[in-house]
Amino acid sequence: MRVLAHPTRLRLLALLRELGPRTAAHLAEFVDEAPGSLSYHLRKLASAGFIEEAPEAGSDGRQRWWRASHEATQWDTAEFTRDPERLAAQQDLFALLGQFYARQLTSYMQSAADLPPEWVEAGFVTDRRLRLTAAQLAELSAEVTALEGRWLDVSAANVAASTAQDADSAGSPSRQAEIAEVFFLAQGYQQP
């Protein structure tokens, strides 16, 4: 948890999930740090299992290529409340995540006028205050996780279909043009 509670590492993990395998030099184009510094952060992320080497992505074998180990990071927040050090790391991470999520929403709102109308109409931002028991919140969490899983499968199928079509067709319209990356965030917790 402490490994992720660093803005550069959080950004690197997000970039690897978004862009796919990259080297420190490639990532330096998106992060205002030297490739050597980024290599250090990448090794830290790898030591915690968040990313892994992707040697098949490189062509010359001289550069270290990295990829995200998982499409998403989930954890049981309750396990961190039992250990003060882990709780502090979780609080640091959640503060960074809150800033990251706010930047994502701000970026979307600032660019909405430039997006195709069908994408703006399809998007949503919502928040609700519910009155639930702990058991009901756990049930809601399970339902949202299942729903997210279904849409992750749809996303993977879209990527596979567009990749196959791109490889099979020369000059025909690509399904890739219909697909865009969508940011999805779900949170549920007792309001303090």
Notable traits:
mainly alpha; 7 helices; three-stranded antiparallel β-sheet; Arc Repressor Mutant, subunit A
Polypeptide structure, described:
Helix 1 (7-19) packs across helix 3. With 192 residues, this protein is mainly alpha-helical. The chain is built from seven helices and three strands; from the N terminus they run H-E-H-H-E-E-H-H-H-H. The longest helix has 35 residues, at 134-168. The mean pLDDT is 87. The protein has two domains: 7-106, Arc Repressor Mutant, subunit A; 126-192. A three-stranded antiparallel beta sheet has the order 1-3-2.
Secondary-structure blueprint of this entry?
Layout: H1 7-19, E1 22-23, H2 24-27, H3 35-47, E2 51-53, E3 65-68, H4 77-80, H5 84-111, H6 117-122, H7 134-168
Antiparallel strand pairs: 1-3, 2-3
Helix pairs in contact: 1-3
Produce a short descriptive summary:
By secondary structure, this protein is mostly helical. It is 54% helix and 5% strand.
